[in-house]
Amino acid sequence: MRKTKQLLTVIGLMTIGIGVAQADYTMNLMQGATKLSHEVYEMHMIALWICVAVGVVVFGVMFYSIYYHRKSMGHKAEQFHENTTIEIIWTIIPTIILVIMAIPATKAMIAIDDTSDTEMTIKVTGWQWKWEYEYLEEGIHFFSSLDEESNKARHVGSGIDPQSVPHYLLNVDNPVVIPINTKIRFLFTAADVIHSWWVPDLGWKKDTVPGFINENWTMVDEPGTYRGQCAELCGQDHAFMPIVLIAMEKVDYAEWVKEQKALVIANANAANREWSVDELITKGAGVYANNCASCHMGDGKGMQGVFPALSGSPVVTGDIETQIELIMNGKGMMPAFAQMLSPVDFASVVTFIRNDLSNTVGDSIQPSIIQEKQSAITVDEDDV
Amino acid sequence: MSAVTVENDDHHDHGPAKGFMRWIVTTNHKDIGTMYLVFALAMFFVGGVMALIIRSELFEPGMQFVEPQFFNSMTTMHALVMIFGAVMPAFVGFANWQIPMMIGAPDMALPRMNNMSFWMLVAGILLLFSTLFVEGGAPAAGWTMYPPLVLQTGNALPFAIFSIHLLGISSIMGAINIIATIFNMRAPAMSLMKMPLFVWTWIITAFLLIAIMPVFAGAVTMLLTDRFFDTSFFDAAGGGDPVLYQHLFWFFGHPEVYVLILPTFGIASTIIPVFARKPLFGYASMVYATAAIAFLSFIVWAHHMFLVGMPLVGELYFMYATMIIAVPTAVKVFNWTATMWKGAMTFETPMLFSVAFVILFTIGGFTGLMMSLAPVDFQYHDTYFIVAHFHYVLVPASIFMIMAGCYFWLPKWTGNMYDERLGKLHFWLSVISVNILFFPQHFLGLAGMPRRIPDYAVQFADWNMISSIGAFVYGFSQLLFVYIVYKTIRGIDCEKATDEVWEGASEHGLEWRLPSPVPYHTFETPPDEIPTEHF
User: Fold this and answer.
1) Of A346, B22, B85, B286, which has the fewest beta carbons less than 10 angstroms from its beta carbon?
2) Which secondary-structure segment (H or E) carries A287?
3) CA–CA separation, B369 vs B363, rounded Å?
4) Is the Cβ–Cβ distance between A197 and A188 less than 8 Å?
5) Which domains does chain B have, with CATH numbers?
6) Gap from B441 CA to chain A (nearest CA, Å)
7) Are strands A224-230 and A140-144 parallel, antiparallel or unpaired?
8) Cα angle vertex A167, ends A161, A171, to 5°?
9) Which CATH fold topology does A273-383 show?
10) A305 touches chain B (CB under 8 A)
11) Predicted-complex ipTM score
């Protein structure tokens, strides 16, 4: 019924024309949440209206000619084929228009490039297929991936109507939070392939290139939730790594920072306590769904020739240390999860894979052991 | 197009070989032109089916039919097939048929190489298709094949790269042949500045091809060695740079998109004067504008890379250089309009397509101008706005003019007039559906929908549905074109075409002074006199 209705709406729209389209059928660039994004919007509109004006003149002349200079109207063809004056005029006019457009564009470029005097820095790392955020001054660090509800609905044959999912494909588990009226510098890099970090309300996007660091800045005026997504093709789940940016009043932001720091301590405590196998398996199922299932599939059967099956895999059913090693360091297309998962998540997913997905190895690993291994890796890196 | 030439070779001591072998071994420019065009048409439908798979998946939000990885393979293969299998071969087909007849030459300069470049094209495309069946699936990193992503391709990678090598060699041989023909085999009276615009645009295109294809072949070979021989051209961990690939690719890629449009300009400049019954306005400025566009195409490549993190001055330079392209392009549009002005126009199918081309190409040009503004491109980049832009310059421009060219020259080639009523129906179906297909994609891009995604947020649902409806109407209405062409070749219920075909056409081009259908061999002795409408 809903689909029929939508189809009818669409056909209706097509027949009455786009002029009467409702406001919720977004058609234009958004003005955005920063001074810069407004400037970009203005420039877009100026360029658009210049094009419309030129189009009206050129197409007007053409249609006049098509109507009046037809053979069937008895018009006789004239045989002129050049006119130096008019050719010079119609070369100079576009040139002047271009210069007029280039001036504000140059100013905006210089403004966008100016990352001086920033008050805080957030480093963004693109991963297949999630974002990593590091608040360099505060020491806050987390990964942000597609929220669970969208993730469940997005598979072929999921049976879930995307319309019923709030902010389908534009929602994440851990949003990135910033204070308003603060000049923030973003540093961009990637861990595997090139991604592109795009929140339309900021007025720009930037590629994240593995091995290189790009930068950009923003200063948001109004508190709010701004949504975006990866804009550079980065593999099969390119459509499924959105960005949610929450801009807060400075006091609220300070509160958020406090919470995040408390969370770091809580996580450390959780890693230090003893976990039961059942606890780990239950927790691991969720971690698996969010981190592993898109390649190894929900049932662990993988995809033949591309992603190996985990059910009955020799690595999974063999020595637990080998499996931990592989997940930590990655292999081929598989990313290195050493820094991506908390000790609890890591231990629980390993335990889950060994005791579910048609595997019955029976053993488990404690988060505290994983934590030791992770800190060993960090120390190694620091030595370098 | 096949059977028509046989009965006309009674003046000659040898005609085409009999049977199937005629097509395998032929060195006749008309036969090879036919093969290129038929092959291009077949690939147009293969690439079209891929496009319809894409548009089916995007008909509504949620994943319905295919896995994301296969979707990515479809976007990649659709682009490669349409560019290298459909549009470029169609242009080479026209070049083969028309250039010798337009310049008064008996054949192409290098007929056996001509045959070889066609069959190498077929081999290259078949090799590309074979990747659909290898472990890991067809290439899925986009036709731009950016590393590191493309290096994650399964077993398809070396096949795809070798296929690009073959296609590149084929294109280079075709280009060499065209240049050799035009420089050496013109009728004595045919000075360079008297050549038809189609010949001019093709010679410029041929130089572009020779300059860029080796760069592309080099870049993909570097991918090959990075993947299999432990080099690190594009791997930062080994001292390389992934962005280096993008520079190499777009040094090829930007001129390449002009390869896909310049012959279109030539066809439009040939058709519009005939139906306006006037000489082309500003012949010389058309030639200079085409050459200027070709030159500029080499120095603007990084406007495809405004986001990769270039220094400010680099971005400003590429912005200014890109904006300048608007000037020669505008001159061409003004010239076409001035050619129509005060003519005595009639609107047969080729002219209808040409008028639609001028308007819709200009819309594609407008969005191109908007995208040249780097700060605004930070928003447009990698969205459906871009998809809308390049489809406007490829479908209602390049593809429309290929169709126009077929309607325009088929009566000359076959001796039969196509069905004008059906031709007009095909035009109106195409021009309406193509706008329903691509115009809403501007809105999608501006509203924030990235390109190359198999699933999208629900606010993009309506325009995607409209776009998909347009895609299906456009796709299926092209079957009508096949029917019309078949009917014309076979001469079913067709009027016979006169030698001139179009009223006054023999004042516009040498080919219209030949009998219809054209004999298997033409201009064995060069014509003494050529049309001088330009002066």
Assistant:
1) B22
2) helix A277-291
3) 10
4) yes
5) 3-513 (1.20.210.10)
6) 9
7) unpaired
8) 120
9) Cytochrome Bc1 Complex; Chain D, domain 2 (1.10.760)
10) yes
11) 0.90
